[in-house]
Amino acid sequence: MFVVASDRHRGHAPLAEIESSGLQPPFEHPGRADEIHRVLSGDDTFTIAEPTRWGAEPIEAVHDPGLVRFLERAWADYQVTHPGTHDVVPDVFAMPGLLDGVGRLSDELPIDFELGRWCFETTTPMTAGTYDAARSAIDIALTTTATVLDGEPVAYGLCRPPGHHAPMGLYGGYCFFNNAAVAAHHVVSTTGSKVTILDVDYHHGNGTQQIFYGRDDVQYVSLHGDPARAYPYVTGFAEERGAGRGTGSNLNVPLAAGTDDDRYLVALAGVLEQIAAFEPGVVIVSLGVDAYHNDPISDLGITTEGFGRQGSLVAGLGLPTVILQEGGYDVAAIGANVAAFLLGSTRQ
Asked: Could you give the CA distance from residue 4 to residue 43 in angstroms, rounded to a whole number?
């Protein structure tokens, strides 16, 4: 299997994150991707290559160009007034209630407030190399996609930072740019083919859903922890089916705590029938392995073998498949879990 990876991800290296009103070591850190790379590089099944560079245009076709410009300069701008800061996190969020009836957001804001204009939560610090790492994740996603469009039946992009929580005009949830969304739009805009994004990360991809909610050329399908108890809490409910032309192209399958391999595979088989009915030319899998039974920030019960069975089911669609890395936070198991899914996806 063709794998695309880059060590540029290491530039995004936060020291801590603020979660549950506490400061803690980050769950999303360079060791995650390094462990996946270590496992895959030790298996002759996988051929690992560097991505090509694609520039900002494909990103700005999906994301607000203002977000792209902000992320490019934000860390350096923050150093002007807060020199020596390693992790940059918003202090104030630009909530609508702050200005309701009394003011407006100007085009020029102090960097302390501007952070809260573009970021929606506190677990996603920015460091000196974050922008380059986020750009490298996009390069990986697009290079992997190009490989599949050129004829590879399946290929894997080791994207880090992940992407599925990033909507059009914000970053957060460990995500800066939405790798899968940029790849999907690239396929649609260059080939005219429909695309399905199948998101198997434990957490609902609120960003991906938002980007395509009103579109009928990209189907978004997500299996995830029920948002009644699981981040991001505000999206991922079964009744969210899309809007306008996109009505029916959005499918959410919230899962009960403790869902095991067999129950997960029943749910996955059901959505694969709906994917086949959509008749996409390409499937993009947002591969999170945080549904693992020992993951520190999820509560499902999937085993390493179960990830392999998931990959085999997806392969049964018989469609060109791009697999892009999202979450997974049990670092000791992440490489084996990713490898299991990838090896499963090469057989039917």
From this structure: 15
pTM score, whole prediction: 0.96
| Ranges assigned E (strand) in the chain | 2-4, 17-19, 22-24, 47-49, 154-157, 195-199, 218-225, 250-255, 282-287, 321-325
Q: What are phi and psi of 306, to 5 degrees?
A: -60, -35
Contact present, 172 and 119 (Cβ < 8 Å): yes
- Which residue type does 294 have? N
- Taking CA atoms, 187 is separated from 180, 197, 200, in Å, by 11, 12, 20
Superfamily of domain 2-58+129-345: Histone deacetylase domain (3.40.800.20)
DSSP letter for 218, please. E
Give the type of residue at 217. D
Among 165, 186, 203, 224, the one annotated catalytic: 165
Domain ranges of the chain: 2-58+129-345, 68-118
Residue 267 tokens, joined:
């749910």
Residue with tokens 């996009």: 138
| Paired strand residues for 171 | 119
Task: Tell me, yes or no, if 224 is annotated catalytic.
Answer: no
Chain centroid to Cα 245, Å, comes to 24
The predicted-structure confidence for 146-175, as pLDDT tens digits, reads as follows 999 999 999 999 999 999 999 999 999 999
